[in-house]
Automatic annotation (TrEMBL):
Signal sequence, start to end: none
A matching Pfam family: YjeF_N
Residues reported to bind (6S)-NADPHX: 59-63, 131-137, 142, 160, 263, 322, 372, 437
Enzyme Commission (EC) number: 4.2.1.136, 5.1.99.6
Catalytic reaction(s) noted: (6R)-NADHX = (6S)-NADHX; (6S)-NADHX + ADP = AMP + phosphate + NADH + H(+); (6R)-NADPHX = (6S)-NADPHX; (6S)-NADPHX + ADP = AMP + phosphate + NADPH + H(+)
UniProt-annotated binding residues for K(+): 60, 127, 163
Protein name: Bifunctional NAD(P)H-hydrate repair enzyme
Organism: Pedobacter hartonius
Assembly with partners or alone: Homotetramer.
Family according to the record: In the N-terminal section; belongs to the NnrE/AIBP family. Belongs to the NnrD/CARKD family.
Domain of life: Bacteria
Upper classification of the organism: Bacteria, Pseudomonadati, Bacteroidota, Sphingobacteriia, Sphingobacteriales
C-alpha cells in the first residue's frame, strides 16, 4: 500500500531524492513540471487554448514558470504568465526558471498588488501562486487576489495544491481557497484532499509521479496509506482445490424488522455473493417468506436462538442493518455483546451504542464498527472537521481494540493500532439507501472466510467501490441490488 506523507515528510523525500539521486533541486522541479504538463495535455488537448499561469515567488511559482516554458515547447500558443510579486523573497529555483523564460523573451506581466490583476481573458487558469509551503490562512493581497480569480469562474487547474488550501490539519470553515476544477498533485495526494470539506477548493485531483525516491517514501513512518487494486491481488485468496462450503466459513447476520426487512436481505445477499460458504440470517419470523423466496441459499435463525450454544458455530457475526432501536433490539444487541466474540456492527447497532455508550465497553477486541459521519458523531461526539473526526477514530480504534470503517466518498479504515487505510474506489452513483447494508454483508463474508477484521474491512471497502465504479461506466445510479449482483465478477478481476 502506498504511504501518504505529511508535508514535512514530503520535503524530506525531496531532500533525500536530491542528495541520493544526485540531481539538482531545479531538475526535480523540471521533472515535476513535465509531469504536470503530461497530465494537463489530457485535460486541455486543444493547443490553441488561451492559458493564464499565475506564479507566486516560491517553488510552486517556480513550477508555474517551468510549466509555461514546457507548454510553449509542446505547441501551446496562447500561454501568458502573471508574476504575483507579493513577497520580497524568491526561491533559487524560481529565479532560475524566471531567467529561462526571460531568455526566451516570454511576455511576463507583473502583479504587484491585488488591484494590478488585469481583466483575465484566458480560458484556462493555472494556479501556481502558493503550494504546499502555505503556513497561514490567506490574508491581505493573496486573499484579495484569490477572491478575484474565484469570481472569474474560469476553468482552474492547480499545481500540486490549490492556493490557500492546507495539505493537512483541520480545515477551517472561514478558510478561503482558490477554487480548482482539477489539482495535478505531485507524487502523493495531500491527506486533506480526502475530506468532504475539500470540495470548497477542488472538484477532483490526479496524482503524477515526479521521480521522488519511492523506497524513502515507503519507509517513512506514516499513519496513512492508500489501498489500490494490486494490494488486493496478493491478499485475496483464490478458491482452493477440493474446497467445499465448510472451507469458506459460516456468517450470521442479525438484522431487519418489519419495515426494514430489505436491509437484512441486502446484507445477506452481499455476504453470499462475496463467497461465504454458508450464510444465515436472523430476522423476525414475519420475514421468512421473503427470505425463502428471494434468497433460497440463505438459512434462518430465530431471534430466540441468539444464544452461545447456537451461535458458537458461526465464524463471523454482523448486526445492525434495519434492526431498529426499540427495546427488543437493545436486548438482541446486549445478548450479542455477551457472546464475547468479535462482531461487525452497523446502522442501528451503532445507533443503540450511541444512545447507551456503556455498551461500547462490552465490545470484544477485533470487532468492526462501520459508521457514517452521523453515526460516528452520535457514538463519539460532534466534530468541527473531518481531520478531527479521523483523529478521534484513530484514538477510539486503539482504545476499543476494534476496526473502525468511517464511511464517506473516501472511506477510512482504521486498524487496531490506529493506522488509517484510505479507500478511493466508489462514486456518486452509489449514493443510494442500502449501500451500507451491502458493505456490512461483504465485511461479514470476508471475516467468515478467515480474513482478519482489518483485511476483511479493506477488501470489502475496495470491492464495494470498485464494483460501483464498473457499473458507473454504463449506469447513472447504482442500486444496492445492482451492486450485490456485480461483486463476484469484480472480485474475480481482483484475484487474477
Ligand atoms: N524540490 C522541491 O522543492 C520541489 C517543489 N515543488 C513545488 O514546491 C511547492 C512548495 O514550494 P515552497 O516550499 O517554496 O512554497 P510555496 O511556493 O508553496 O510558497 C512560497 C512561500 O510563501 C509563503 N507563504 C506561505 N503561506 C503564506 C500565506 N498564507 N500568505 C503569504 N505567504 C505565504 C511562505 O514563506 C512560502 O515559503 C510545492 O507545492 C510544489 O509545487 C515541486 O517543484 C517538486 C519539487
Ligand atoms: N459518493 C459516493 N462515493 C463513494 N462511495 C459512496 C458514495 N456515496 C455512498 N457511498 C458508499 O455507500 C455506503 C453508504 O453507507 P450508509 O450511509 O451506511 O448507507 P445505508 O445506511 O443506506 O445502507 C458507504 O460505504 C459509502 O462509502
Amino acid at each position: 500500500m502506498k504511504n501518504l506523507l505529511n508535508q514535512k515528510q514530503m520535503r524530506s523525500a525531496d531532500a533525500f531524492t536530491i542528495k541520493n539521486k544526485e540531481i539538482l533541486s531545479v531538475d526535480l522541479m523540471e521533472s515535476a513540471s513535465r509531469a504536470f504538463v503530461k497530465a494537463f495535455l489530457q485535460e486541455v488537448p486543444e493547443k490553441a487554448t488561451s492559458i493564464a499561469i499565475l506564479c507566486g515567488k516560491g517553488n510552486n511559482g517556480g513550477d508555474g514558470l517551468a510549466i509555461a516554458r514546457i507548454l510553449k515547447d509542446s505547441g501551446y500558443s496562447g500561454v501568458s504568465v502573471y508574476l504575483v510579486n507579493f513577497s520580497a523573497k524568491e526561491t533559487e529555483e524560481y529565479t532560475i526558471n524566471l531567467k529561462r523564460l526571460e531568455d526566451l523573451w516570454f511576455p511576463l506581466t507583473a502583479v504587484n498588488t491585488a488591484a494590478d490583476l488585469p481583466d483575465l481573458k484566458e480560458k484556462v487558469i493555472i494556479d501556481a501562486i502558493l503550494g504546499s509551503g502555505l503556513n497561514a490562512v490567506l490574508e491581505g493581497p493573496y486573499l484579495q487576489l484569490v477572491e478575484s480569480v474565484n469570481a472569474l469562474n474560469r476553468q482552474v487547474i492547480a499545481v500540486d495544491v490549490p492556493t490557500g488550501f492546507p495539505a493537512e490539519g483541520p480545515l477551517k470553515k472561514e478558510g478561503v481557497y482558490l477554487k480548482a476544477d482539477l489539482v495535478i498533485c505531485f507524487q502523493r495526494p495531500k491527506i486533506n484532499f480526502f475530506f468532504p470539506e475539500s470540495v470548497q477548493a477542488l472538484k477532483r485531483f490526479t496524482v503524477v509521479p515526479i521521480g521522488l525516491d519511492e523506497e524513502f517514501i515507503q519507509n517513512c513512518d506514516s499513519p496513512y496509506r492508500l489501498i489500490e487494486g494490486p494490494d488486493l491481488t496478493g491478499l485475496v485468496k483464490p478458491r482452493a482445490p477440493f474446497s467445499h462450503k465448510g472451507t469458506y466459513g459460516h456468517a450470521l447476520i442479525v438484522a431487519g424488522q418489519q419495515q426494514t426487512m430489505g436491509a437484512a436481505l441486502l446484507s445477506a445477499h452481499a455476504c453470499l455473493h462475496a463467497g461465504a460458504g454458508l450464510t444465515t440470517l436472523s430476522i423476525p419470523e414475519s420475514g421468512l417468506t421473503a427470505l425463502n423466496t428471494r434468497l433460497p441459499e440463505v438459512m434462518y435463525l430465530d431471534r430466540a436462538d441468539l444464544i452461545p450454544e447456537k451461535t458458537n458455530k458461526f465464524s463471523a457475526i454482523a448486526a445492525g442493518p434495519g434492526l431498529g432501536t426499540a427495546e427488543g433490539s437493545i436486548a438482541i444487541l446486549q445478548g450479542l455483546l455477551k457472546l464475547k466474540v468479535p462482531l461487525i456492527l452497523d446502522a442501528d447497532a451503532l445507533n443503540m451504542m450511541g444512545d447507551k455508550p456503556e455498551l461500547l465497553k462490552q465490545l470484544s477486541s477485533g470487532s468492526v464498527l462501520t459508521p457514517h459521519m452521523k453515526e460516528f458523531d452520535h457514538l463519539f461526539g460532534d466534530h468541527d472537521s473531518w481531520w478531527e473526526r479521523l483523529e478521534t477514530a484513530r484514538e477510539k480504534a486503539l482504545e476499543l481494540g476494534c476496526v473502525i470503517v468511517l464511511k464517506n466518498q473516501y472511506t477510512f479504515i482504521i486498524d487496531l493500532t490506529g493506522k488509517v487505510t484510505v479507500n478511493t474506489t466508489g462514486n456518486a452513483g452509489m449514493a443510494q439507501g442500502g449501500m451500507g447494508d451491502v458493505l456490512t454483508g461483504l465485511i461479514a463474508s470476508f471475516a467468515a472466510q478467515g480474513y482478519t477484521a482489518n483485511e476483511a474491512a479493506c477488501i470489502a471497502c475496495y470491492l464495494h467501490g470498485k464494483a460501483g465504479d464498473e457499473l458507473a461506466e454504463t449506469q447513472v445510479s447504482i442500486s444496492a441490488s445492482d451492486l450485490t449482483g456485480r461483486v463476484s465478477k469484480t472480485l474475480k478481476g481482483l484475484i487474477k
